[in-house]
Design goal:
A hairpin with a 5-residue loop joins strand 3 and strand 4 (98-99). The longest helix has 20 residues, at 145-164. Helix content is 38%, strand content 19%. It is of the alpha/beta class and 588 residues long. The structure holds glutamine (GLN). The site of glutamine has 10 residues, from strand 17.
Length: 588
């Protein structure tokens, strides 16, 4: 709970008595941090996070310190309880925050770890206000949407500005202008711009240009209405980014310019792009980076020498996109097979590894609810390797186990992630150790051979929400194992976790005696975190989510290993050394 002094820091007593109520963190210097505020109109799903992260990357390249924040309209305290099928994957930060998948986009684009300060929901804002109200912090006032709720939003942004020491805070408002649930965020941004003064805030409106097939031409009306809605809320956009399937015509841009008071040079076309990693170049080509610098009066803060170096590194990466000489197909077994967003980080991690290895990675989604030991070979005949990703619940687990059995017995490259790690342990216990009844108590609570059981620390916790073993943890690797070598012979590595169940330590000896190697564990605790099969060219799984920390210029070694293994084909286990050499070349 915030104490009264913190709440009131920087606010004079008189202002508490008056209508001016805008708590400002102690030591906050107006003008030091600028704000780029990205809002959506017409419809959601325009890629505000992608746009905002690409623009932030261009600023970071110029030597500016950037800090993104996503403001979500929903009342959940975090994204942990959201169904990925409805809302995309739950991204987990190093500090354990379960947040929106856009935070993953920011981390990847900026190659920077973020924290809970970079994510907020309406639920968090209201909770904080209600806590303060019960604490008696509002000094007898009625607590109102304006100024208290909007004040809390501004306080959050300014706190981020202070703590990150950022030159620019990138604020992404979730949803679309006109949504009731986001209205107070938009009002807070209007107030922020007024309080911070001229050249402090740059408003970017993302909009959508329709191109109905029956007409065969682009229409700007929906975009005009969307922008009008923003202007009715007191926000004059400085830049309008027009998302569309094709390049937006000059005529349509002119129309939007006329109706919105935005010079045509700042009404830009953002057509669909094959890879999001090509968007920073699109933004540079239309001069958006310098427009923002000029609007915010911070041209004098940039370091052009640094920019040249960073941009060259980035172009080395993007130049390889689409020029891959090899191709592999990786099967991903998953419950949410129809929604790519549910597995966004895995798809990205495969893309990073593929680009680094000059190999196009095609993905085949595998619905395991129909897979059995008998038909696994048929279902997996077109894939060069498989990933069994994280998940919850019973559906499709037997099919996953059948796929893992096939991969183990046929030298097929395999990467198991979280639930995939647990399924690999069950498969090995059943089919190699002869523990026919082996299972996880998540799947079969009354199971008599619970090789996977709930963590002791989790048994005490009731209810769902923010209570799993969450966030970045160190992992101790065993010398001379695949895990040790993949991570550059490092005995301590770090990955991010999100689970309730683990290998029951009573079974470790039995499993290891039969040939399963636990090559990574939690320091000082018997929690198994990585497993591998020394007799197999590439069979590795982890209780963590390695996909969350893969970055374009730093692909995650377990994924690079998988793609490299899939490229070489694995008829025998002698390929392991070659795979490791390839990983070393890419990951250093
Ligand atoms: N359901 C499993 C657990 O809670 C795995 C979780 C996951 O894959 N993220 O441990």
């Amino acid at each position: 709970m915030t104490d009264k002094n913190e709440l009131l820091a920087g606010v004079s007593e008189a202002s508490v008595e008056s209508e001016f109520f805008s708590p400002i963190p102690a030591g906050y210097k107006k003008g030091k941090t600028k704000y780029v505020i990205v809002m959506g109109t017409v419809m959601s799903g325009l890629g505000k996070g992608i746009f905002s992260s690409c623009l932030a990357k261009l600023m970071q390249d110029k030597g500016l310190k950037v800090a993104p924040i996503k403001l979500e309209g929903y009342l959940n305290i975090d994204s942990g309880t959201l169904n990925p099928f409805r809302h995309g994957e739950v991204f987990v930060l190093d500090d354990g925050m379960e947040c929106d998948m856009d935070l993953g986009t920011y981390e990847r684009m900026l190659d920077q770890n973020l924290s809970r300060e970079n994510f907020s929901t309406s639920g968090q804002i209201y909770r904080s206000i209600l806590d303060k109200e019960r604490h008696g912090d509002y000094l007898g006032r009625d607590v109102q949407m304006i100024p208290h709720v909007t004040g809390e939003v501004k306080f959050k942004l300014r706190t981020l500005a202070m703590k990150s020491n950022a030159d620019i805070v990138f604020v992404e408002i979730g949803g679309t202008a006109g949504d009731l649930e986001n209205a107070f965020y938009i009002e807070a941004m209007r107030e922020l711009a007024y309080e911070e003064g001229a050249h402090s805030c740059c408003f970017v409106a993302l909009t959508y240009i329709l191109e109905p097939r029956t007409l065969g031409e682009q229409k700007s009306k929906a975009a005009q209405l969307g922008i009008k809605q923003l202007m009715q809320s007191g926000i004059q956009p400085d830049i309008i980014a027009c998302r569309a399937a094709n390049t937006v015509s000059e005529k349509v841009r002119q129309k939007i310019s006329v109706y919105s008071n935005v010079p045509i040079g700042r009404v830009v076309s953002l057509a669909d792009s094959a890879s999001i990693y090509q968007i920073p170049a699109m933004l540079r080509d239309c001069g958006m980076d310098f427009e923002v610098l000029r609007l915010l009066h911070i041209e004098d803060r940039i370091d052009l020498r640094k920019e040249r170096i960073e941009w060259a590194k980035w172009c080395d990466f993007t130049d390889k996109i689409g020029k891959e000489k090899h191709e592999v197909t990786i099967g991903i077994t998953g419950k949410y097979t129809s929604v790519r967003d549910s597995y966004a980080s895995i798809i990205n991690a495969l893309e990073h590894s593929g680009i680094a290895l000059g190999c196009k990675v095609k993905i085949e989604w595998i619905d395991t609810s129909v897979i059995t030991d008998k038909n696994a070979a048929e279902h997996l005949k077109d894939v060069d390797g498989i990933i069994v990703p994280g998940g919850f619940g019973v559906r499709g687990t037997e099919g996953k186990i059948a796929c893992i059995k096939y991969a183990r017995a046929n030298n097929m490259p395999f990467l198991g992630i979280c639930l995939g790690f647990q399924m690999a342990v069950i498969e090995f216990a059943r089919n190699v150790c002869g523990l026919k009844k082996a299972n996880s108590t998540e799947i079969e609570p009354a199971c008599t051979e619970p090789v996977i059981d709930i963590l002791p620390e989790q048994k005490k916790i009731e209810g769902l929400g923010g209570n799993m073993r969450l966030g970045g943890r160190d992992i101790e690797t065993k010398p001379d194992t695949m895990a040790f070598k993949l991570f550059g012979n490092s005995s301590t590595i770090r990955m991010r976790f999100r689970h309730r169940y683990e290998v029951d330590p009573r079974y470790i000896e039995t499993l290891e005696k039969a040939g399963l190697l636990f090559s990574g564990k939690a320091p000082n605790q018997p929690i198994m975190q990585i497993l591998e099969l020394p007799a197999h060219p590439y069979f590795i799984a982890t209780q963590a989510h390695p996909c969350l920390t893969s970055r374009p210029l730093h692909p995650q070694p377990m994924f690079v290993g998988l793609v490299a293994a899939a490229m070489t084909g694995t008829k025998d286990n002698k390929n392991a050394a070659g795979i490791l050499r390839t990983v070393e070349k890419v990951c250093g």
